[in-house]
Amino acid sequence: MIRVLTLGGLVGAALFTMASPASADEGMWTFENFPAARVKADYGVTVDEAWLQRLRGAAVRIPGCSASVVSAAGLVLTNNHCITGCLVQLSSADKDHLKDGVLTATRAEERQCAGMWAEVLMETTDITDQVRAAVAGKSGAAFNAARDAVTAAAEAEACKGVESARCQTTSLYRGGQYVVYRYHRYSDVRMVFAPEFATAFFGGDPDNFNFPRYDMDSAFLRVYEGGKPAKTPNFLKWNAAAPKAGEPTFVPGNPGSTERLLTVSQLESYRDLAIPVGQLQRSELRGRLIEYGRRGPAEKRLVADPIFNLENGFKVFFGRQFALNDKAFMDAKRDQEAELRAKVAADPALAGEIGDPWGEIARAQEAYATSYLSYRQLESDAGRSSVLFSWARGLVRAAAEREKPSAERLPEFADSRLAMEERRLTAARAIEGPLEQLYLEHWLLKSREYLASSPADQAAVLGRESPEGLSARLVSGTRLADPAVRQALWDGGMAAVLASEDPLIRYVLQMDAAARAARAAWERDVEGPTDRAAERIARARFAVYGDSIYPDATFTLRLSYGKVAGWTHRGTEVTPFTTIGGTFDRATGEAPYALAPSWIAAEGRLNKDIVYNFTTTNDIIGGNSGSPVVNAKGEVIGAAFDGNIHSLGGAYGYDPVLNRMVVVSSAAITEALRVVYGRDALVKELMTGK
Amino acid sequence: MIRVLTLGGLVGAALFTMASPASADEGMWTFENFPAARVKADYGVTVDEAWLQRLRGAAVRIPGCSASVVSAAGLVLTNNHCITGCLVQLSSADKDHLKDGVLTATRAEERQCAGMWAEVLMETTDITDQVRAAVAGKSGAAFNAARDAVTAAAEAEACKGVESARCQTTSLYRGGQYVVYRYHRYSDVRMVFAPEFATAFFGGDPDNFNFPRYDMDSAFLRVYEGGKPAKTPNFLKWNAAAPKAGEPTFVPGNPGSTERLLTVSQLESYRDLAIPVGQLQRSELRGRLIEYGRRGPAEKRLVADPIFNLENGFKVFFGRQFALNDKAFMDAKRDQEAELRAKVAADPALAGEIGDPWGEIARAQEAYATSYLSYRQLESDAGRSSVLFSWARGLVRAAAEREKPSAERLPEFADSRLAMEERRLTAARAIEGPLEQLYLEHWLLKSREYLASSPADQAAVLGRESPEGLSARLVSGTRLADPAVRQALWDGGMAAVLASEDPLIRYVLQMDAAARAARAAWERDVEGPTDRAAERIARARFAVYGDSIYPDATFTLRLSYGKVAGWTHRGTEVTPFTTIGGTFDRATGEAPYALAPSWIAAEGRLNKDIVYNFTTTNDIIGGNSGSPVVNAKGEVIGAAFDGNIHSLGGAYGYDPVLNRMVVVSSAAITEALRVVYGRDALVKELMTGK
């Protein structure tokens, strides 16, 4: 699944910058800079301003995902996997909506998803010149303060007087461009339809990021205003006909994050160190969670969601590693880098300005190799997934940081973020002791193992205790599960923290100096030099390629183009379509290949020849989940929900030969709504737009 | 630990051949071809024939390990980890010798290790010319038959009339040389002394293959003949003085297996595919076993040994991956390959004879990438560690193969191996149902995951069942735990197998065609072409470098030279010594850093300054465990028991900068025998040789 993914300790330097000159179908283009001429030449499709405006006005951003408006009455299409939080929320002891889905017959039955929002982009304003003017001659904290003052003022100005507006500045091309995005935000989002989990995620983890595929990974929401369905005249027309091979496809949506400007030496560090270590640790933890779940039904329920997330993350990095281990992929990255370096070298003035950032980054990789394990185990991955640990560290650090001026603090404790941090650290939340201990013990075991050649860091984490004994002592002794205890520590500041006898607080206090030192070394020797060098690489690209390139993904609206196509890998040809009939052939009756009862009952009445899922060449990534897939006329022919395993290398570069998006067709959604679920009113709304 | 390791599905082509021209201290040299001149030049030590003879006559081979004679009364030094099987065997419900060690006060207390043997090499005979003459013009089965006839005759001749002699032909330099080794075999081996597990393996898995280190990984055996201690006038003198930095060290022993002739493209396949997949699966299984052991004390005992073995294997491949991910290491391999290719190209006659084996192997890597996962999951790693599965497959295949002439069978069922196979398949052995199911389920889960892009193979393994359901059904239903059932299936042959209703037999029958097909594809497309090409690379090396090179390890007697030295990695200098005092500083009281009670009691009386463990540059590998480390005078100054993490890359090439052997010093062994264990008679025997 291609939700936005948190990368944990992996992102040494987040490079939000532009990529290389694009190859066929490559690119997550801004609407302002869409390569219409190229699309015309390649596909014969005319993409004019009106066409773009229609798409933009119907494209929707929801938390972590994308979506689209598909009727004049606020109906919104997205993926089932994007709204599982709401399904859990709406469930009760009697009714498990995640498992069984949601069917509504009338709008009165549409229930609100608490906290959910949906945004439509209304306007973008380029404020690059104002920012440049304000920061001129400044650096460090003064630079940041000046930049933030300009962007805050611009956001306030753009959103002035409109309650439902939300404004947010995004830096594109790594500071090459600053843009204020003004969204219309819908804060009342209700659930209209969701299929069963077994239908939405048929094939489960084994089929995740693979194809052929048979997933009804779709759901419908409706945005409301003033207690009524919002009026949304600018919607995308629903097309229930099957797509054809080679047909052009366009995907507006919000790709979350790419790192296509990484140098080859950085990719090698990911390939040889960061990703493998993360994957090995993830694998061992996966084994532990699976086995823990074998104890009984209660344990099985407890680990279901953690396993789900862990397996998705594992698959993502498996795909990335796969790309980085692919000789052709790395050769292409090497060629791109060599080309840019040659062009820079050919221009003495530019070469003088740019220097040798590639060499600087390559040298920073030595520090990467030296510092990574300590940084990971003591800082970025400390405590693994233990909520208790993250609270304890947050409370200890917040107390220390709040005694300093905002500008001198660790950035996550700056004044502007303090309220959010307090909410996070003091909120009530259910704690599962056995799982907490499992996470802590696993982290401590791996720290002991991976810090074997850094005895001082090993000792900072474990002292003279064993992973088993220490984790048991911390989890059984801590009272941090109680929100009042945490609130008192927050309110009491450093004095309260130092006076606390809570074992987890004392433990974090004891190891924090070593953890901060590991972070400082990482920022000083790896992140800092890498950021400085990467900025000059970005500048070089601007100088050489101009705006024939697209910015790295930033979870803002982009448009991708491509076509319906399969692929061929190692002699095996994968056709781009599956049919509804295929899911019955694939079904075994055992999870994750067990059909929902509704589908078993409907088998005889379904048209099995209808295209179910299909693949296209569109260049998308996590955050694009739920994006509408539209044809040349701008009609919805499906919802993007996944990529193939090769698409995961898309984080670092687009491979036109292998990278494929996976879509559930409008045709199949329509057929299922009609035949399996009997949602005639919803089908009518889709077909008529009303 | 550096016991001989079974590589499972990893070894595509076992290349028992010679390596590149040796760098400083590199080489596992035969005694016949020891580079004495080089040692004289580098270390000023004169290694003459008498010196070599003395070493050779005291060097001992035991199952999977090495050892040495250290008194005239048959006393043998080796590692504790080499004789754990005997310790378990000698234990009873009252006494756990693996945990508590063995102390004997008199020879009457020395108990026999059943099945244990010890061999001293007496003579080697080069029969290359006879073999060459016999096989001339032959190929395939005729070639093998002719070769085997010559070697069998030569072995019989060499061992004629000597009951205790054992003769074995080994092919060195990948068939470049055939040598009959005649050993004197001691079949009555008794236990004299072993320390506690906590003392021998202090630091456990976290410190395994690391340094600093504090392990008394030593043990003493005694060889007997005619019920009395054997007379062994040719023994190594014991030296209880501490080694010095830079002091030359020599290690006679039996390195098990190296693959130093692999081409760069093969190493890349290991690095990018085979090792990572194996490690990820090992990690997940490790997590499962750890978590299974958390259920209770009985479960913890059950998984202790499987975890121990799994973690050792994991560490070995972690080190190998580390080397393969090291740019300098791979660059050195590339340079060596380029040099040889250039020398071949410069000699037209040789080039014509050799062709382009490197290109052929590189092309075979494409087949490797295509076939590996199916070959691994269906064939080489099928059933994972399930004993029941391996019995079922063995019985099914033996029945099928025995219907063919011997020469046409899968080689493991040739007439010469059939008796051994029958013993394996019909022996009584305790079966742990839950562990069997865990292994099978894990294997099935991973097969489903890794065969996602080979649906036919996936279906062959799982049918329409789930991993959980299928493994439960097979383990609960099978009766193969009963040796009588297996014997009946063996005796009844194919008719009995086909008539069996045992679910495991039926399951294996059903998937065997797919498994055999995966194996056939692997042998045809990967192993075959690789073997044929590698043979020509070996020939090219002979032609270019002659006998200035040493053969790949073959678990036969070799001699390595080097010196006491630490190393520097990423700016961190590791000194080559630890002291007895260090183990008390390192101890935490919690396993694996808990001291044995005997050491705690002795702390005040021990000389803490004595060197405990030390590192040297000697080039050794698994199989060398227990080897004596001798000084220039040929005196024992320690027992080799491990390598550092970098030494694990030694499977593919020796790195003089980082590759280090880890030794427990004679000085520390002597101090512990005296002060901790009060073994005065043993100390006296060591010091006087009597």
Describe the structure.
2 copies of one chain form a homodimer. Chain A is an alpha+beta fold. Chain A folds into 2 domains: 8-117 and 187-259 and 552-688, Thrombin, subunit H, CATH 2.40.10; 364-548, no CATH class. In chain A, 48% of the residues lie in helices and 15% in strands. The first copy, chain A, contains 24 helices and 20 strands. In chain A, strands 1, 2, 3, 4, 5, 6, 7, 8, 9, 10 and 11 form an 11-stranded antiparallel β-sheet that branches. A 5-stranded antiparallel β-sheet of chain A has the order 16-17-20-19-18. In chain A, a hairpin with a 2-residue loop joins strand 10 (219-225) and strand 11 (228-229). In chain A, helix 9 runs antiparallel to helix 10 (297-324), helix 13 (357-380) runs antiparallel to helix 20 and helix 16 runs antiparallel to helix 18 (467-477). Chain A starts with 35 loop residues before the first helix and ends with a helix. The relative contact order of chain A is 0.19. Chains A and B meet through helix 8, helix 9, helix 13 and helix 16 of A and helix 8, helix 9, helix 13 and helix 16 of B.
